[in-house]
Each structure stands twice: as structure tokens, then as C-alpha cells.
Amino acid sequence: MKKLLFLLLLSTSFAFSQQTKFQKIDSLLTFLNTNNKFMGELSIIEKGKMVFSKAYGFADVESGKKLDANTKLKIGSITKTFTATMIMQLVDEKKLTLETKLSKFYPKIPNADKITIHHLLHHRTGIPDFLNDDPTVGEFIYVENKKEDLVKRIENYTSAFEPNSQHKYSNSNYNLLGYIIEDITKKSFSENLNTRIVKKIGLKNTLFPTKIDISKNEGNSYFFDGKNWTKVPEWHSSLSFAAGAMVSTTDDLNLFLEALLEGKLTSKSSLEQMKSMENYYGKGLIIAPFEDRKFYGHTGGIENFRAAAGYNPEDKTGFAIIVNGDNYSRNDIMIGVLSLFYGSDYSFPEFKQFEVSKAILEQYSGTYKSAAFPMKIKVFVENGNLLAQATGQSSFQLTAKSETEFVFEAAMIQLKFGENKMNFKQGTMEFEFVKE
């Protein structure tokens, strides 16, 4: 494992103040990359000009192939913004309406006669998420999922709630929208993407892939196991499809969102519909606030890729990040980048770990279970570090914050140990585990 280089923090404040905002952003991302916290791309667009575009780390660690600004990486759920844009184009062309029922296309899906295109776009359908709600997802995540097979799977799900009664994010909704695009146009999702968006606004590195191809300047995703960056297995693109399978670059994401939010891809009324929020979610768009600014965009996560992109029509500025080596909070990276860009107060993070004796770490070793959590979590010591591993998942190294509290910042996981027990927090979720 590379040694932490704190020398970057020891340069004088005067020297740092003399750097341009772009040099400061570059210093931050270089610092994170040097400390094995981040690999990926970042670009910034301002008034139609790409003012920052740089990549850090490797596209393929095993061969030593480095990332560059044109390396195509998976963008996860930012795919949904492209899908929603094409749906709204079909609405503009009067080939579809927002009130068209799902039953017109897939009548066997529960409540299809009550679910509209509007509900699908806003995640108000009650259709369970095949990725997060289906306990058998491990059986089909790495294999080809034909359209008829995934539709059949969705038909067999029990509706979670009455359509339009509440909001629940579901990848199933956007895969169905992708199928509807194909059904109406009689063309593949990829063909529609190319003609309706990519060629229309001159994107160079955005596509619907079949499999990662390093020879075509595409990149893998990695997690840091405490010593090395380890490659994460690739999901089959047919599964995530119109909900999350696309690849792109940060430059292309900025160009796409700028074109969309400046009215170059849909009618003005359709754009306003996309920006209209219900339960903080529009039609393929979310709002990301920073201080008094409002960015329209989306986030994404697939395998160990993490992405975020947003555009502020008021100051005509956009930011896009795609992470392919995820060992630090994407949100915290973007707060740092935005703070440095806009001149807000910001201090580099510190990665110095609280020292915990090996004897205490060994006390925490063991397998923990919770009646409320579907997997057991194994905790163990390796090379003087505490690691955790959920059943069937990759292990991850924990960072000590005190003798009893440990975190895995990339996934916002917090563990607090007591005598033969462990408290687990992730975001708003919290579980109590006991040692077997």
C-alpha cells in the first residue's frame, strides 16, 4: 500500500492561496488519488467551454493502462436522464403521452392499467426494484437478461403500493421505459441514443455497451482492499439496461446536461416537466443544491463505479465526476471541488488513522448476525488492519475513529463495537448485530 503523502498539506497557505481554483481542484484530486482514495475523471464546463478536464489513476490496474479524459466509464443511473430525455422527445413527437398507460405495452404487470408514463418517470408505480428488492438477483446479475425474461420477472412481482400514492425509486421503472422506447420506434435503445442525443449534439464517447473493452479506451471499476486496487466483476449490460448501463466521459456528461437544460434536446414545455420535482425527483432529474445554487442532474452507481453530474442554468456551469476507484465519499469529493471552484472555505481531509492496538482489534474479530439484516458480517484482522465482509460480498478495510468506532467512508458505513455486539449504520439505516 502506498504511504500516505501528507507533504501536500505542508505547503504554505500563501503558496496555496496563489494557486488558481483549477490548480487547487487538481491538488485535491491528486491528493485523494495518491492516498488510494479515488480514481476517476472530473470535468467542469462554464458558459459552453470545458474549463477543466482531467483523469486520475488507472483504467486497467492489471495492465497499468492509465485513465485519460476520453476513457469511457460506466455512469450507472445517470443513464436514466438519457432515457427520460428520449421519452420526452417521443412526447414532443406525439408518439406518446405522459398519461399513456403501461397496460398499452405490458398489460400483465400488476396495476398496469393504473400506471402511467408519468408515474414511471417519477418512480410512483409501486413496481419493485429488480436490483434491490429481488432476493434472487445474484442469480441473474452477471448473465444475459432477455427483454421477455426481465418483463416476466417484473410481472411476477407483487406491487409495493397503489400507483401514485407514494414515491419509491425502482430501476424496473426505467428499464420498462427503455423497452417502451424500443417498442414505439422499432429501433434498439442504442440506435435511439445515437440518433436522438449522441449525434444530435456531437458527443464523442457516449454509448450503450455490451462489455467493457480496455482496447477501446474503456475502464474497469475497483475497490481498495487495504493493500491494492482490486477489480470488481462486471454486471451484464442487459440487466441494468436503460436504468444504468451506459458508458460516457465527464466531458460528454457536461455537454449533454448543458444541451438538455439549455433547451436543445426537447421542447421548452417538456424540459419544464423534467425539472418539476415530486418527492425530490423530476423526470430523470434531481436537484443538487450547493449554497444558494441549484444544479439539475443525476447520480449513478454500478459495480464500483460512482458518478454525479449537474448543471446550473443560472451561471451556466456544470460539473461531472465518474469514479472507477471508490474509496472515499463521492459527495465529499464534490463538496470539495465545488467549494474550491466557488471560493468557499475548505480544508483538505486528513486520513491519519486513530491507533488501535492489535489486541483490541482481535477482540472485535468474529461473525456477527442481526435478525433485521439479511446477511452476516465477518470482522477480521489482516496486516494490522480491521476488515469487514458481508456474506457473498467483497471485504473492505475499516478506518478507526476511536477504540470502538470504525468507518468505511466510501459507502458511509459506521461500525461501533461493544462486548460481543456491533452497531451498524449506513446512511439512515441502523442495525444491531451480535457476535455468534
Automatic annotation (TrEMBL):
Signal peptide (UniProt feature, chain positions): 1-17
Annotated source species: Flavobacterium dankookense
Keywords, in A-Z order: Signal
SUPFAM superfamilies (UniProt xref): beta-lactamase/transpeptidase-like
Coiled coil segments of this chain: none
UniProt name for this protein: CubicO group peptidase (Beta-lactamase class C family)
Occurrences of domain Beta-lactamase-related (ranges): 43-328
Transmembrane segments: none
Pfam families tied to this protein: Beta-lactamase
Gene3D superfamilies associated with the record: DD-peptidase/beta-lactamase superfamily (3.40.710.10)
